[in-house]
Specification:
single chain, about 525 residues, alpha+beta, seven-stranded mixed β-sheet, 16 helices, about 25% strand
Length: about 525
Amino acid sequence: MNISIQKLDLSYLETLTAILSRVVQHLISNCIDQWDDKYPNKEILIRDLESQWAYGLFCDSQLAGYVVLNEFQDKEYGEIPWEYTSGSQLIIHRLFIDPQYQGKGLAQKMLAFAETFGKEHGYFSIRLDAFPGNTAAIKLYEKNNYNMRGSVRFRKGEFYCYEKLLIKRGIMKKLTLLALLLTLLIFAGCQSSTSENKNAAGIEKNDYNGQIYLYGESHGVQELIEEEFRLWKGYYEGGMRHLFVELPYYTAELLNIWMKEADDKIFNSVFEDWKGTASYNQFTFDFFKNIKKECPETVFHGIDIGHQFDTTGERYLQYLTSKNLLNTEQHDRALKVIEQGKKCYAVKNDEKRFYIERESLMVENFIFALGTIGNENIMGIYGSAHSGLNNLDNTGTIPCMANQLNALYPGMIYSEDLRTLLRQMEPLRTEIITIEGKDYTAYYYGQQDISWLKGYVYREFRHLENAYDDLKDNIKTGDVLPFDNFPMNVKTGEVYVVDYMKTDNTKQRLIYIADGRIWNGKETTEEIKVE
């Protein structure tokens, strides 16, 4: 099923009128007294289409859905105690799906498109109203984290009013200003004039003036990778084309070449080079294949240091040689990133130094990539250690990549940690686990691919109920697992079971306790010994 969303004009009026008639009859047959021949009607559709507010969802080239996006708010909206009142608000009107196409998740796609449209056009929040009797619509909005702020009365009775924050402008402004002030102070001590275009590490910004949407992840988690594809497809359908990824420059360039090829030879070689890393899993494989299939004009931008410089990097240099592209910008850039990789891996034994040098180089590479795309908006996918606007790096020493970028491009970066989606999930099942002769209720939260770790396949996570007081005095091993490594919400004063499945089909069970320990600036659990 091929899905697309596009702006509609008056040529679609008769088709829309017929679909709307079917929608109204479907609502009435289900005892939902929401719409009738007075609203919405043909005259309203004409106004929508003439005003260029209307968008249609096409399913295999057939018009199947409709939504209106604009800034118009009924006067009754003024009665609602909205939470998000700064900036501009995008309003959703008249979202409907032809009954012939309902039950296929198309309303979800329309809603995702509206949110992407809002972010792309700089709206601060999004608002809509819903008829209480339309339980399917209510469920859709609440599932997608729309918050009800109150209700108003229209001709058909009470309607619930919902809103959702789109762009977190001005988040932690004080920290951003502090970072800028720190930059000024540092440079004031070593030179007579301070450049506002550099951060504290001396990295210089360019004139990029678009919008940056960053999403943090835990590598190798199926649910997060699938959500990333959904997000990218939404941005793509809204007109975005540039996807920034946690890969080296030359890897992204090979992917861009592959996107235009009829076969998958290039991608398969790149993917095999990822063996032993967190990217070597079926979910990531499917992610890129789906992008080629459904978002074929995507342009990848790699901003990481030169990982796999002796395999993927060498293969890219050979490609450039075969195309007589030596001494070109692409060749020079590839060599520079390869040298970055060699430099960082030369100090790999000094883990702290490795991470600090890598983080700053990622910032430089990110800015370089921004300089190649004009002012077009971009989406980026990175490990959560790199994507927090106010976070430090893995060592807790310097600002992470997104934090440094935010100081250079204040107000232009939206960042969201997708791991919060997993922490809202309910346990998949309940089990009984025996520890030191006592049975405990264990809540199972699923597994995470760790095939990138030599000798391992995946790990499973469980929360052990009412075990803390029994096990808090057990000997700790010193092995830590930070809260952000878990796929669910972790709390101090709890015990967690993590089972590691190995490639030899054996299982290793570790018990972790959350007792308030902080490691590298992060809340963390620590392994305890059990009999």
